[in-house]
Amino acid sequence: MRIIFFGSPREAADSLGALISAGHDVVAVYTRPDRRAGRGREKSQTPVKVFAEKQGLPVFTPAGFRNSAQELDRMADANADVFVVVAYGRILPADILKVPPMGVVNVHPSLLPMYRGPSPVVMAILDGQTHTGVTVMLLDEGMDTGPVLAQSPPVRLTGRERAAELQARLFKEGAAMLPAVLTGLQDGTVVPTPQDDSKATVTRLLDRSDGEIDWSLSGEQIDRMVRAYDPWPGTFTSWNGKGLKILDVELLSGAGIGATTESRPDLDSDYRLGHDPGKVVVRGGKLLIGTGTGPLEITRLQLEGRQGVAADEFLRGRPDIGGATLGGQS
Which residue of 9, 100, 108, 296 is surrounded by the most CB atoms within 10 Å? Predict the structure, then answer.
């Protein structure tokens, strides 16, 4: 069938490749405009653009679609059967949704109606979910409210996933599902099923401030933040007036309130019972930070203006962090 594809990151390029491999005729590709990045501020193309141009496909990078009669005419003239959207990064207006006769198919990395909106992978990790999945759906004018075409089996989570890794995994699953879903939509064997709005949860767009650590939270919640906000906005605090990124942590079993000497003989008895959130204690070459539920081990971190390093290397260069209070006064 004839397809116009919308997508931007590497995961979307994989879906585009799956459609091409399945023999579909991709007549146009829409992706985000080039943007300047890095110290040299050189223009960077999206992975979808790079891949599509290698395939000889026509690529379009409009800054937006508001009042864009030219783009609307171009899409209509392409005579596509269906549009496919995978992590495009921009909402398609209602007049575009009406163009293809089979509708606009979207791959969403959650089991809808859970986690509608822009941050489903992040929220699944933050909420400590034991499983998630992928939904292939038809877009309507709402935020991920359209009917479901297919869903993956539940994807089990181990509790150690990071957002970038999990997102790649889910979109890979979605790419594998797409060709069969499109065929079924065309021949009528796949029937759109309305979502149960009463079970819906909605996510929001992330802000950089979301990554600032409140050390009074539980160690488990801070661990989830570190994994959920990778790569953006990251998790961070401050020390001596400088930013300090927390890149990786390790939960300490038996280190919270009520821990026994036998469970954690490497910790002082007063520390095992809990201490001030954000307070740094160095024990046995380990960098431990107080949280609302006891100490959390920091295993990798990055001081502003420096490279990220393992905690033991950081302590060799900055042993004076011991006794400091992160996010406050040293």
Answer: 296
